[in-house]
Amino acid sequence: MNPKQWWLFRIFALFRKEKRQKHMLNIVLFGPPGAGKGTQSENLITKYGLAHLSTGDIFRANIKGETDLGKLAKSYMDKGELVPDSVTIQMLESEVNKREDAKGFIFDGFPRTSAQAAALDAFLTSRGTSITYMLALEVPEDQLRDRLKHRAETSGRADDANPEVIQNRIDVYNRETAPVAGFYRDQDKYQGINGVGSIEEIAERLFATIDQVA
Ligand code: AMP
Description:
By secondary structure, the protein is α/β, with parallel strands linked by helices. The chain has helices at residues 3-22, 37-48, 55-64, 68-77, 85-97, 114-126, 141-155, 158-161, 163-177, 180-185, 199-213; strands at residues 25-30, 51-54, 104-108, 133-138, 190-194.
């Protein structure tokens, strides 16, 4: 390739990247512990071919791999507390950076604080893209407790097995995470989804909302 061809190729590649970033479908899948974010993420990945980023899964993989990040995260997760923002934001951004070719992302379990939401906005803006919608799974609290109890029998998650830790996760959600919905409401990006019903019914509601708004 001569220098002129190389430059033309570079410009074309940059143009394509910018166009792709502008048209990305980036979804925040939101909801309290036990709302079904993980299960429904699977359905969205299959249907829309998006990259799935679950901060809880990434922390659990680090715990399994006995990394320093895993040790730090475990000390918070075992109590049902949030891992500090600075650590979580840095980890999330580095995971996004690893997926240059993604058509879009499902953010599952992130953002969980207002600081994380603001950091995600700034980060995506710097990459020429933004959150398309927050889809919030709405489930009454008594059903959440039943689901978590049931999940504890199969998930192998220490934080599902202890009722005090479950209660703390729900309290932390109500105190620190629920207000994040307001951040997206203010941008007209909030879509509440009835999270009660069969997995298939809830998936259909999510698909219908995405197809209508995206
Ligand atoms: P999850 O798998 O989403 O239920 O998350 C399990 C645990 O991981 C949470 O209870 C927190 O301790 C930690 N965690 C996951 N995502 C975040 C986040 N965005 N910010 C802080 N801590 C998180």
